[in-house]
Design a protein that fits this description.
Distance between the termini of chain B: 31 Å
Mean pLDDT of chain B: 87
Shape of chain B: globular
Largest sheet of chain B: 2 strands, antiparallel
CATH architecture of the largest domain in chain B: Orthogonal Bundle
CATH class of the largest domain in chain B: Mainly Alpha
CATH superfamily of one domain in chain A: MetI-like
Low-confidence stretches of chain B: none
Radius of gyration of chain B: 24 Å
Number of strands of chain A: 0
CATH topology of the largest domain in chain B: MetI-like fold
Distance between the termini of chain A: 22 Å
Helix content of chain A: over 70%
Oligomer: heterodimer
Strand content of chain A: under 5%
CATH architecture of one domain in chain A: Orthogonal Bundle
Chain lengths: 330, 283
């Protein structure tokens, strides 16, 4: 691969940059084995170069995260000056609130069903898109639109499609005589239909993302393996379910992990389509945190609500590290 | 080999049927935006007319309204300005950091890289409540600076991750050669590594810009003045007024704001996906 392998690059660098490499010279043997042909490290310069980014992230992510925890145990409100420790008071009151219980339940329903739809849909679509065909570029662009366009704008498109009076879906339902005029479903106005609608729109949004991830996984499967299976007499379906899909499992994991995060912690679709209504039937944790903490001015209670996202995030982070670790070891 | 058997033809039909169903389901809302944008109100709000076709002459009224009577253009300008600022901040923070973590700090640098990537998973909806107070204490509330300061929090981690993958693929010999020629380590980074990383850096630029336009929660929380809003929040909040919907201009706005972003993003999508799948797909 290397056209000009500098076998002894460490000495080369020592001549060029004595100070920096001197710091890196006492290397552990394990490292030098890994980076046998590598350029010497220089931790001091390295630290200087990544410090600004790490400092910024600590300030703008770490700081607010600590604040969110502090707020959750306090009585802070928008406009209040000081704040007092109130122990578990916020948690006690939100757990007793029916809206919170509904939001918690809805968050899981919303996440679970949209992920099922996304994984099934994107697996099918990825398999269909894998082969090269004429017009593939255009098809790909159209399929990707929901993901690459800003979601708040795509969701408004759906709000119009699902309009209570002028819904094009309802016009079709009436036209084919499934419903009488003015009695067609109120997609965003009835609790179960509203939930189904936000789930479908969220799936619509994530399906392209999941599809391209799956496609990356599918194209990475060495061609010899499905070919060998075919020679051994396995048909299309058998190859798909017993060879391709099992080999895609790591990548399906990645798609699911990201999908769960992007769904469980997002409120854009819900906010635009239903604002959590009717009667909290589509309220999810993030939107409930927004309505409580920002619109309701109760920063403390809002923070307490949003902290309920943390256990799931920790679990996802753990699984991601496992995926990354496994790939590194193998 | 070339002869199409019955099974093959059936397979092709099935393939195209699947593709057509998905394309229609996924792209329909955008097609609907186009139709709605150019329809007269009398046509839009008539339950008896077929909504799929133009029953009256197409009109440019909605576009005129959008550009003449609303803050739409202002929102586009705000978003573009914030996008440029966030891109600059992201590049300044993430290029050196990614290089340092890839090349200068050994194995624990890689680990720190993974930790930084994980901060990308911390969602705005966990941080927006305390941040809203921080922003108001800083006096940035209701200004575009509020999002300009906060948005790099999700663009920097992912950009560092993308660039780390990119820097890993650059042969070390290039830097070694530069340093033999008398450049310092940092000099080799600035004069050798950065210039040949143009395509990776361009990916970060596009990625950052599209993420800024897609951001919703922070802009919704921090900005309430109509003239200071970002396009992704201004359209749903200020073009929808009570129960009166200006659907024509609303759909025109969605279409105009999303298509350029969608197009740009699409061009670079494969590189972003490579970022998401590092670790799970080898090679």
């Amino acid at each position: 691969m290397a056209m000009n392998p500098l076998q002894n690059s460490e000495t080369t660098e020592a001549e060029g940059n004595g100070a920096a490499s001197a710091a890196a010279l006492p290397k552990k043997p394990k490292w030098s084995k890994i980076k046998s042909a590598g350029t010497a490290q220089s931790p001091l310069l390295g630290a200087l170069m990544f410090a600004p980014a790490v400092l910024y992230l600590a300030l703008i992510i770490g700081g607010p995260f600590v604040l969110a925890v502090l707020y959750a145990f306090s009585d802070v409100r928008i406009g209040s000056t000081g704040m007092h420790y109130v122990g578990l008071e916020n948690f006690r009151s939100i757990i007793q609130s029916p809206s919170f219980i509904t939001s918690l339940k809805n968050s899981f329903i919303f996440t679970f069903f949209s992920q099922v739809i996304v994984i099934v849909g994107s697996t099918i679509l990825a398999v269909a898109l894998e082969k090269k065909f004429r017009g593939r570029g255009l098809v790909r662009f159209l399929i990707l639109l929901p993901w690459v366009a800003p979601i708040s704008l795509g969701a408004i498109g759906w709000k119009w499609i699902l309009d209570s009076l002028y819904s094009v879906i309802n016009w079709v339902l009436v036209a084919v005589h499934l419903y009488k005029p003015f009695s067609a479903p109120m997609w965003l106005g009835e609790p179960h239909l509203a939930m189904a609608s936000v789930i479908l729109v969220q799936s619509w949004r994530l399906l392209p993302f999941s599809t391209v991830i799956m496609l990356a996984g599918l194209t990475a499967i060495p061609k010899e393996i499905p070919e060998a299976a075919a020679i051994d007499g396995a048909g299309f379906w058998r190859t798909l379910f017993q060879v391709n899909i099992p080999m895609m499992l790591p990548i399906i994991n990645v798609a699911v992990l990201f999908g769960i995060i992007f769904t469980f912690t997002d409120m854009t679709v819900v906010y635009i389509l239903t604002q959590g209504g009717p009667f909290d039937s589509t309220q999810v944790l993030p939107s409930y945190a927004y309505f409580t903490g920002i619109l309701g001015s109760d920063l403390a209670a809002g923070s307490a609500v949003s902290l309920f996202l943390v256990p799931l995030l920790v679990a996802i982070a753990y699984f991601m590290l496992r995926v990354a670790h496994r790939a590194e070891v193998v | 080999m070339r002869k199409l058997t019955g099974g093959k033809v059936g397979g092709k039909v099935l393939l195209w049927a699947i593709l057509i169903v998905f394309v229609v389901a996924l792209a329909f809302p955008f097609y609907w935006m186009v139709i709605t944008t150019f329809k007269q109100n009398s046509d839009l709000y008539d339950l008896n007319s077929n909504p799929f076709i133009f029953n009256a002459k197409p009109t440019l009224d909605h576009l005129k309204f959008l550009f003449g009577q609303t803050m739409f253009v202002r929102w586009l300008e705000n978003t573009a300005l914030v996008g440029v600022i966030v891109v600059a901040v992201t590049l300044l923070l993430s290029i050196p950091a990614a290089y340092a973590l890839t090349r200068l700090t050994g194995r624990w640098g890689q680990r720190l890289g993974v930790v930084i990537f994980l901060t990308y998973l911390i969602p705005p909806t966990l941080l927006f409540i305390p941040l809203s107070r921080v922003i108001s204490i800083l006096g940035l509330q209701d200004t575009i600076w509020s999002v300009a300061v906060v948005d790099p929090s999700f663009t920097v981690p992912f950009s560092i991750w993308l660039l780390m993958g990119f820097f890993k693929s650059i042969p070390r010999e290039l830097e070694d050669a530069a340093m033999v020629d008398g450049l310092t380590r940092f000099g080799a980074f600035v004069k050798m590594v950065v210039p040949i990383s143009t395509s990776g850096i361009l990916t970060v630029v596009i990625f950052t810009f599209t993420l800024v336009t897609q951001e919703f929660v922070y802009a919704l929380t921090f900005i309430s003045t109509e003239s200071n809003q970002m396009v992704g929040v201004g359209i749903p909040i200020f073009l929808i007024r009570g129960d009166v919907y200006y659907w024509g201009s609303l759909m025109a706005a969605c279409l105009i704001a999303s298509l350029p972003i969608a197009f740009l993003y699409n061009l670079f999508l494969d590189r972003f996906i490579a970022g998401f799948t590092v670790g799970a797909v080898k090679g």
